[in-house]
Amino acid sequence: MQIRNAMDEQMPTRKTQLSAAKQALLAQRLQGKGRSQRPTIPRRDPAAPVPLSFSQQRLWFLHQFEPDNPFYNVPFAIKIEGKLDITALEQAFQALVQRHEVLRTTIADGTGHPEQVVHPQGTVTLHRIDLSAQPTPPWDEVKRLARHEAGQSFDLRQGPLLRGTILTLTPAKYVLLITLHHIISDVWSTGILVREVVTLYHAFTQAQPAPLPALPIQYADFTLWQRQWLKGERLQTQIQYWQQQFATPPPVLQLPADRPRPAVQSFRGESQTFSLSPSLTTALKTLSQAADTTLFMTLLAAFKVLLYRYTGQTDITVGSPIANRNQAAIEGLMGLFMNTLALRTQLTDTLSFRAVLSRVRRVALGAYGHQDLPFEKLIEVLQLPRDLSHTPLFQVMFILQNAPLSFNLSNSLPGLTLSPVELSSKTAKFDLTMTMTERAGGLTGGLEYNTDLFDAATIDRLIGHFQTLLAGIVAHPEMPICKLPWLTPPEWTQLHTWNQTTVQDPSPVCLHQLFEAQVAKTPGAIAVTCGQHQLTYAELNHRADRLAHHLQSIGVGPDSLVGLCLVRSLDMMTALLGVLKAAGAYVPLDPDYPQQRLAFMIEDANLAILLTQSALLHMLPDYPGRVLCLDRPLPELESGTPRHQPPPGPAQPENLAYMIYTSGSTGKPKGVQISHRAVVNFLQAQRQLLGIASQDVLLAVTSLCFDIAALELFLPLTVGAQVVIVSREVTLDGFRLAEQLQAVEATFMQATPSTWRMLLLANWTGQAGLKLLCGGEALPSELAAAL
Predict the structure, then answer these.
(1) What is the pLDDT of residues 655-668, one digit of tens each?
(2) Beta strand pairing status for 173-181 and 73-82?
(3) Are 485 and 289 in contact (CB under 8 A)?
(4) Starting at the edge strand that comes first in sequence, how are the strands of the sheet with 722-725 ordered?
(5) pLDDT recorded at residue 5
(6) Whole-number Å distance between alpha carbons of 400 and 12
(7) Is residue 724 within 8 Å of 567, Cβ to Cβ?
(8) Distance in angstroms (rounded) separating the CA atoms of residues 178 and 312
(9) How far apart are alpha carbons 176 and 179 in whole angstroms?
(10) Cα-Cα end-to-end distance for the chain
(11) What is the dihedral of CA 186, 190, 191, 193, to 10 degrees?
């Protein structure tokens, strides 16, 4: 039987801890230390005040903020089948309470510091609820009652801090609900509780005295000893080690969540389970032995690789609990002994998994050798900035339970069969907690997750990635971690399907040729509108042809870069098509950019020609090349015979259509060159995806210096739709933008989440038939719901 406590940190069991203790002892001896450093724990003076242990102190502190919060309850449930003597069961619990002082302990404020108060007598009464009147076993009601019981808070000052309920389902079927407060218990303690209650119950039903030997010490004895032993040079040695490990604060682990992290943790959670095959389990053990590591270290290293692949962060800190029962006298005591180790590892793409495993081993051994410093004391020493949105030092926990708290209960109690009842706590102390348990059939796992951050489908994918990664690790432990497989077979199939995007195009064309084909179909349709002015397809094409002829006459040809510094206008649309028809490539220059940035872009692109408007001349930096103002008469164009055919020497699909500069947020802006073939492929794909047709009206609000502007301006012109160019002033005013959307009866608009939020704040309530496209920034879930 395994008693699993989903609300506790799920501490490693005895086998895990003994292994860790051996490792810790080895580390101590390597440092010239031995068991003499840890003297026998003496019995305390019964009259002496008893402070809280370091772990208890933190829980008491948190309890002061939220005394009614059941978050630190430790609930579990056992199904009992057979003839149960409830009176003997109550007697067994009563004897257990008398045996373990901590079960009859309450917390008093003391004289400036909280203290443990051990009461000479304690009473436990099992609350009885009869559900046998229902025709079938009422498991829904059992789960409801279990959640209700687990959600009832404790009064630390009054106690008792242990309570039980027995649910009668039939005369031969019961469910025992047990809840303790974490301040007096941990997972190891729940195993002791079950084992000793079973032993006591068996004796009492046989009219025998309690067979358990007297305990050598009590939890309060340990608490006093811990406070006295861990001080002075011994404390400083522990502190110095951990201060060295965290000389710089570790970064918050930025897992790709489904929702932004809330400002204050709610600790709402769910969990999912999974299993590894016996063959994979055996392979992981074999790899561990070959690398001279434990199975825990191998699984932790794999989990860290997964976190690295998910986040791209090279500095990964994961928490792991340790039972902290490294003396024989406290192995049989109930109480809160557990401690938490923060294990920090640096990872890079080029490291093999074996190299990562070696680093994890070194970190784990060092932590085992310095496990005596309570985690609460470490947080106090490090003085980390307090942030209520996440837990300090680490946000992810990893646990391996080598030997579950199990024993054959059916043999221990003749006539009774006992089995655990899995309960969902609906809580999560961390963003993620991965728990692996070693069973006869292989490793099983559980992943507890914060539902404020993650959806169940996301966690299901993460589990699949972890399983795939483990299989890849045992097959290729020398492979760089960046190349280890992690996508599941269905994901590979889906990825392959998504990438089958090749389309046979019998006649590759350039961007402007798509426009020209539409001119031939609908020459009289409105192509572009800006304010009170508009152009038909034929008119826009005629203007662009005339400009293209002129540009060719002054040297523009394939891949020539022509700068465009224009306000949002019909001239801007003419310039775009004119440059493309001349076989050149345009370089957008936003007139609202600082002169220094404009000067850098002009020089970096080596522009020989700049198209602009007369009102912008004073805003431009010094420029030695040719400047053409499109709002002024161009003699070369006016004097010649109007050209109604495209200019000669058109560009080829491999030639550049435009060059656009990055924001420069990570250094100097860089020019990104886009070919006609690339942009035409993009537009044709978007045409199919978005379903844009000739009757659509697209509102263009994006600066020409952003790549999505190509979608806004060119996509409608390839299908016979209308582009409405909105001025910069209107795009920055939510009220005016909402009016414009309504006035032109727009059917499509692409914008950033910031623009959509601005519209909503201007009381815009949507528009029938309007298709929305959102990009450029992360879209918050609440904004998506509002749209």
Answers:
(1) 999 999 988 777 78
(2) antiparallel
(3) no
(4) 533-536, 526-530, 722-725, 697-700, 748-751, 771-774
(5) 31
(6) 6
(7) no
(8) 43
(9) 10
(10) 51
(11) 130
